Automatic annotation (TrEMBL):
<dbReference type="GO" id="GO:0046872">
    <property type="term" value="F:metal ion binding"/>
</dbReference>
<feature type="domain" description="Amidohydrolase-related">
    <location>
        <begin position="52"/>
        <end position="436"/>
    </location>
</feature>
<dbReference type="GO" id="GO:0019239">
    <property type="term" value="F:deaminase activity"/>
</dbReference>
<dbReference type="InterPro" id="IPR011059">
    <property type="entry name" value="Metal-dep_hydrolase_composite"/>
</dbReference>
<dbReference type="GO" id="GO:0050416">
    <property type="term" value="F:formimidoylglutamate deiminase activity"/>
</dbReference>
<keyword id="KW-0479">Metal-binding</keyword>
<dbReference type="InterPro" id="IPR051607">
    <property type="entry name" value="Metallo-dep_hydrolases"/>
</dbReference>
<dbReference type="Pfam" id="PF01979">
    <property type="entry name" value="Amidohydro_1"/>
</dbReference>
<protein>
    <submittedName>
        <fullName>Formimidoylglutamate deiminase</fullName>
        <ecNumber>3.5.3.13</ecNumber>
    </submittedName>
</protein>
<keyword id="KW-0862">Zinc</keyword>
<feature type="domain" description="Formimidoylglutamate deiminase N-terminal">
    <location>
        <begin position="7"/>
        <end position="44"/>
    </location>
</feature>
<dbReference type="InterPro" id="IPR006680">
    <property type="entry name" value="Amidohydro-rel"/>
</dbReference>
<keyword id="KW-0378">Hydrolase</keyword>
<dbReference type="InterPro" id="IPR055156">
    <property type="entry name" value="HutF-like_N"/>
</dbReference>
<dbReference type="InterPro" id="IPR032466">
    <property type="entry name" value="Metal_Hydrolase"/>
</dbReference>
<dbReference type="Pfam" id="PF22429">
    <property type="entry name" value="HutF_N"/>
</dbReference>
<dbReference type="InterPro" id="IPR010252">
    <property type="entry name" value="HutF"/>
</dbReference>
Length: 466
């Protein structure tokens, strides 16, 4: 399903500075916006079915984890936590084949497009065969993810993960981590292998690096990896899990005398190319200092709630003028609007206030959050997907004005109802990526086929782990 139109007119569209009426969009053959004019008539252009929003980047994804969504919601020990969930996750990761991964990822990316995401940052740490040995082609599983993204039609920032240790100070990896482990030289060789593959589709793909966490990479190897990445692409995105769990903070203090974010800021050149994923447990001083570096906070509200992580310190992050975006991480939920809702609601719980994420410029909280998440997600992706303005990719979604929660409302109120009143359903009718329509009538062309392949893959996965 690929519409070849190169223009569209919207009665209402959300531009980087807010809502505009009578907006004409035009893009070139590469899917890059060449014109965004407001206050004009349709004049024969194709007319959008409803308000047009910028596509939301999903800045943190572990695609394979969609395969066991819902299957860890039982008590495995007296006090379940992230760490007991991780043990269950390792069991599933140990059984995935390249074909299974590709089937799961293809369905997930179709789901993302139907749910309002137009690009994904894939934090890819499942590298090797089930026994921990490399595949004949060391890039086998990374290529499976790129094929899945291409088939679904979603833009991707591929972030191969450097994972070497089981804990701070170079702890020996566990058996459950054997498929993740790479030496630094081996990782840099993988990046060199993947770079021309990604560069061949510059609008659709970008390559970066993800040191998994401070507990999984030693300081020495972190430095070597970042230097190697700089030699390959000094602007490449760098993503890292940090300060997700209280135990992680405690272990980091025991190892170094410093908290994780504090240590990273003092030992690495953290800046705008960095995405600090979760960053849940920071002191106010850490939050403001990290925000001032220009790094993006990668927030995953549904996963952070599912795993019992805690609530991000948005107050101090915003005090440092920090940028942020959202991701679906373990994919307990795949719904862009719901991630925004959960983020706002978590802050309402913590602060006992309403409309926390509204701004003086954008008093409608859903509008303010959408614009912030698009800008932060684009920065973390390292791609030109920062909204509806010339030079950016024509990634956008169209709201369904006939969906019951939205019907009869003004455009800004439709977006509010989409985020806060759609009751776990999507009020999106179309999704466009690089000027091509990937979802029409709220359904992706590959929906049925991809769903069937996912169910078969998941059934096989469950059979081998039960």
């Amino acid at each position: 399903m690929q519409n070849r139109d190169t223009t569209m007119w919207a009665a209402d569209a959300l531009l980087p500075d807010g809502w505009a009426r009578g907006v004409a969009l035009a893009w070139d053959a590469q899917g890059r916006l060449t014109e965004v004019r407001r206050g004009v008539a349709a004049e024969g252009r194709p007319v959008a079915a409803g308000p047009v929003l910028p596509g939301l980047p999903n800045l943190h994804s572990h695609a394979f984890q969609r395969g066991f969504c819902g299957l860890t919601e039982y008590r495995a020990q007296s006090a379940d936590s992230f760490w007991s969930w991780r043990d269950l996750m390792y069991r599933f990761a140990a059984r995935l084949s390249p074909a299974t991964l590709e089937a799961v990822a293809t369905w997930l990316y179709v789901e993302m497009l139907e749910a309002g995401y137009t690009s994904v940052c894939e934090f890819h740490y499942l590298h090797h065969d089930v026994d921990g040995r490399p595949y004949a082609d060391d890039a086998e599983l990374a290529l499976a993810l790129l094929r899945a993204a291409e088939r679904a039609g979603i833009g991707i920032t591929l972030l191969p993960v450097l994972y070497q240790n089981s804990g701070f100070g170079g702890g020996v990896p566990s058996a459950g981590q054997r498929r993740f482990i790479r030496g630094t030289d081996n990782m840099l060789a993988l990046l060199q292998r993947l770079k021309p593959v990604c560069d061949a589709q510059p609008g659709a793909r970008r390559l970066g690096l993800a040191p998994h966490s401070l507990r999984a990479v030693t300081p020495e190897q972190l430095g070597v990896a970042l230097a190697g990445l700089d030699a390959l692409d000094p602007a490449a995105p760098v993503h890292i899990h940090i300060a997700e769990q209280v135990k992680e903070v405690e272990d980091c203090i025991a190892w170094s005398g410093q908290r994780p974010v504090q240590w990273l800021l003092e030992h690495a050149e953290v800046g705008p190319r960095w995405c600090l994923v979760h960053a849940t447990h920071m002191t106010p001083e850490e939050a403001r200092a990290a925000a001032r570096t220009g790094a993006v906070a990668g927030l995953c509200p549904s996963t952070e709630a599912n795993l019992g992580d805690g609530i991000f310190d948005m107050t101090n992050w915003r005090a440092g003028e920090g940028r942020w975006g959202v991701g679906s991480d373990s994919h307990a939920i795949v719904n862009a609007a719901e991630e925004l809702m959960l983020l706002e609601y978590s802050l309402r719980f913590a602060l006992r206030q309403r409309n926390v994420m509204a701004t003086p410029e954008q008093p409608h909280v859903a509008t303010a959050m959408t614009l912030a998440a698009v800008a932060g997600g684009a920065q973390a992706s390292g791609r030109d997907i920062g909204g509806l303005c010339p030079g950016q990719q024509a990634d956008f979604v169209v709201l369904d004005p006939h969906a019951l929660p939205l019907a009869g409302l003004r455009a800004e109120d439709m977006l509010s109802a989409h985020v806060f009143g759609s009751h776990r359903t999507s009020a999106l009718v179309e999704t466009w990526v690089a000027g091509r329509r990937r979802v029409a009538g709220a359904r992706h062309a590959a929906h049925g086929e991809a769903a069937a392949a996912f169910v078969a893959a998941r059934s096989a996965l469950i059979a081998t782990t039960s």
